[in-house]
Amino acid sequence: MSKLANKVALVTGGSRGIGAAIAKRLAADGASVAITYAKDASAASAVVKAIEVSGGKAIAIQADAADAGAAKDAVEKTVATFGRLDVLVNNAGTAIPKPFEEATLEEMDRVLDINIRGVFATTQTALKHMTDGSRIIMIGSAVGERAVAPGLVPYAATKGAVKMFTQALSREVGSRGITVNNVQPGPIDTDLNPASGDWAVPQKAATALNRYGHVEEIAAMVAFIAGPESSYITGANLTVDGGMNA
Ligand code: NDP
């Protein structure tokens, strides 16, 4: 029996990178999966196709996480399509790397709106539908706990907020048997943070394993937290960073 058989998962920002790997992994573990995306419809439908070809069920929903109304509608559409919601993965996130003194308020608002406001709106709507034993999983960041490099001040601040959101929310929904956890990746090779180029050199060097991580290595942790064996883990920040914060 698949670990997530008869479960329904929503992965925000599931068309590329870490979110796409999470969506595919949860589907492989038996869940029906809804993904959201902001711009790239063809990447989103490629993820849906890949899941369907492997025998799973998936839908893609266009919903910019910065738009709270769209984020809420995505939850409702997931429930309307699959009938329930058991696992929410708040993965959509962005960074606009630059020195803090050069960051505009508009850029800071964009990072806040996607990384925090979207997470609040999505989670609040999801909780209306979630039953006992459901799972809320954030994709925070290792820099939410330790700022290893300059250039990520607003981003690190939002990921620190994601960390405390996780801990605080776990206290409110624990009585319903709902767990809330924060997976904190280190440098993972994606479009957002490619493993090649100048920006990658110090990040790779900062890890104990001296390499970037793969998206599947984050998906594996998310799958564990989504599954039945993690039932006593909540309010936790689970860092998957090749030892960057060691
Ligand atoms: P990518 O930029 O590679 O992929 C982002 C995904 O999110 C895409 O599917 C994209 O879809 C979607 N997306 C982007 N903006 C929005 C939005 N406003 N609303 C809805 N969906 C959106 O990012 P990663 O996979 O690298 O990052 C995923 C998460 O992991 C983020 O929260 C990030 O902060 C976190 N993280 C990443 C690390 C890394 O090293 N890569 C390290 C630590 C944390 P579309 O193309 O349609 O915009």
UniProtKB/TrEMBL annotation:
SUPFAM superfamilies: NAD(P)-binding Rossmann-fold domains (SSF51735). It comes from the Bacteria. One of its GO terms (molecular function) is 3-oxoacyl-[acyl-carrier-protein] reductase (NADPH) activity. Keywords: Oxidoreductase. It is an enzyme of class 1 (oxidoreductase). The keyword RNA-binding does not apply. Residues 7-186 form the Ketoreductase domain. InterPro entries: KR_dom (IPR057326), NAD(P)-bd_dom_sf (IPR036291), Sc_DH/Rdtase_CS (IPR020904), SDR_fam (IPR002347). Its EC number is 1.1.1.100. Transmembrane segments: none annotated. Belongs to the short-chain dehydrogenases/reductases (SDR) family. This is 3-oxoacyl-(Acyl-carrier-protein) reductase. It comes from Granulicella mallensis (strain ATCC BAA-1857 / DSM 23137 / MP5ACTX8).
